[in-house]
Amino acid sequence: MALFIRRNGALFGGILLTAIVFLLARPVLEDHRGAFIPAALQANSGIVAMFVMTICLAVATAIGIVVTRLTNACVALFVMGAGIYALDYRLAESTEILLSGSFTPLIIEMLLWFALVLAAVVALFKFGGPLPDVHPDEDGETPSPLVSPEAFKAAAAGLLILPAVWLLSKSELTGQAVGAVFIGAMLAGLLGRLISPHVQPILLFASPLLFATIGVVIAVVVVDGTPAELFTSRKLPAPLWIAPIDYLAGSLAGMSIGYGWARSFLHHEDEEDEPVVARPTASADQ
Fold first, then answer.
1. By three-state DSSP, how is residue 129 classified?
2. Rounded to whole angstroms, how far apart are CA atoms 202 and 121?
3. Hey, CA dihedral for 110, 214, 262, 202, is it positive or negative?
4. Closest C-alpha among 214, 223, 202 to residue 165
5. What is the Cα–Cα distance from 242 to 171, expressed in whole angstroms?
6. Are 14 and 66 in contact (CB under 8 A)?
């Protein structure tokens, strides 16, 4: 009972606190049209807005570290993603960015979020602790979570966010945008753990944002026209329908669900090799 209360208290209490932290940043996300937009660098004071959002992410990471100690890093990542979605839900759709913004700040902000999320995940694992159900390989070794072939192989699963976004993102609706990213990140978390089950998933957790940025860059290169022109003609590539904060919320929440889901497909060797002790029969006792 105590464990149930601790875990659920950490989950729901963490979501509530993280949501409050990010909602405090809403006023700085106002643009020149008076809308609150899901892209910090395209707000009235872009640098100030990005700084405030960075502070919010740092506070959310501190909350996540506490959640990690009470549960694990997957739960903490979901808590952070859900808290960011609480803010995203109260922001305008990407239409506001497309009608008044440009592609360059969008790409810069995506890169910044990737770097910031990677730093946040490193902090979660350093101060909160590693995932307890990630076991060493058959040689008893644990690969480096940042600079090993296993880590890079797991992170490559983040590519799955691209087909998910291209197939599922068809409009500026926030729910559809976050849902597309969520599904892509969930599949990436699932596949990443299945192909590299023995490495702590630090790179994997941040990888969807990196590949999403690459997808945005490719989309910008292949199109011809301003964001407003492409929006009004409905010729906007799928990755550009999604705003940076949409990507942020969906990737963190989806990755945690997918990585946790993968556990049901794994069976570690140390569990198979446990000796089975036969209980003596009644006849043997006699």
1. coil
2. 6
3. negative
4. 214
5. 9
6. yes
DSSP one-letter code for 30:
B
The pLDDT tens digits for 121-130 are 999 999 999 9
Quote the longest CA-to-CA distance of the chain: 90
Instruction: Compute the distance between CA of residue 16 and CA of residue 36 in angstroms, rounded to an integer.
Output: 21
Return the structure tokens found at 112. 């910044």
Look at residues 86, 76, 87, 77 and name the one whose alpha carbon lies nearest to residue 39. Answer: 87
Give per-residue pLDDT as tens, 8-20: 889 999 999 999 9
Which of 249, 250, 83 has its CA nearest to residue 183? Answer: 250
Rounded CA-CA distance 179/88 in Å is: 12
pTM: 0.87
Distance CA 257, CA 189 (A): 7
Q: Which two tokens stand for residue 270?
A: 């140390």
> For every residue of 31-55, which 3-state class applies, written as one string?
CCCCCECCCHHHCCCHHHHHHHHHH
What is the CA angle 219-224-228, rounded to 5? 90
User: Which candidate, 146, 119, 255, places its Cα nearest to that of 203?
Assistant: 146
